[in-house]
Design goal:
Oligomer: single chain
Distance between the termini: 28 Å
Number of strands: 14
Shape: elongated
Largest sheet: 8 strands, mixed
Radius of gyration: 22 Å
Number of helices: 3
Order of helices and strands: EEEEHEHHEEEEEEEEE
């Protein structure tokens, strides 16, 4: 099995090192943690496929907070940022702040990324460029997948006896889809954290 032969979420998979073993019974290679080497490797693969960077000139990597902690301890990363605090950035519920920028890749820390735990843990990170994925909406009966719903107050509204409130809501029927599998890489690593 080649290093990028497997696919996850429709994108090629890159392993943390050339000798990575990820197994629930035998553990994993300690050299397979998220670090500068694997970020450089995945970014090089994206550039070889002519993947477009985002407006800031960088690709995006979303990693679990444990993987980001490993990244902050990486010798190569410490060499890039010798006089800075490498602790993880705080994230808000909607807009995450960048953890760091390395080799033209902006790294974001998010606990929405899966982490598989057995005897040993496996972190899944996603690096992508512009056009890697998109969102499509599903419409029914000629309607769009986005619907704005307005409920006006009136005698039918028993929860609003004074008729003071109207309710406005919306619903979307959408799905994410991989648009260009050459523009993304799933990175599987081991976590020491």
């Amino acid at each position: 099995n080649g290093a990028t032969s497997a696919r996850t979420w429709g994108f090629p998979v890159v392993f943390g090192s050339s000798a990575t073993q990820l197994s629930a019974t035998t553990g994993s290679s300690t050299s397979a943690v998220l670090g500068g080497w694997i970020i450089k490797k995945a970014a090089k693969q994206l550039r070889a496929k002519n993947t477009m960077e985002f407006a800031d000139g960088n690709f995006i990597l979303i990693a679990n907070s444990d993987a980001c902690s490993d990244l902050a301890r990486d010798v190569e990363v410490k060499a890039w940022f010798p006089y800075t605090d490498n602790s993880p950035a705080t994230t808000g519920p909607i807009q995450a702040k960048p953890f760091l920028n390395l080799y033209g890749v902006t790294v974001y820390s998010s606990n929405m990324m899966p982490r598989y735990r057995a005897t040993h843990s496996c972190d899944v990170s996603f690096m992508f460029g512009k056009g890697a994925y998109g969102v499509t909406e599903f419409g029914t009966n000629g309607k769009s997948g986005f619907e704005l719903i307005v409920k006006r107050s009136g005698p039918q509204d028993t929860s609003n006896p004074a008729n003071l409130f109207s309710t406005v809501s919306f619903k979307c029927t959408i799905a994410a889809a991989a648009l260009n599998v050459s523009s993304g890489r799933v990175i599987l690593t081991h976590s020491k954290a």
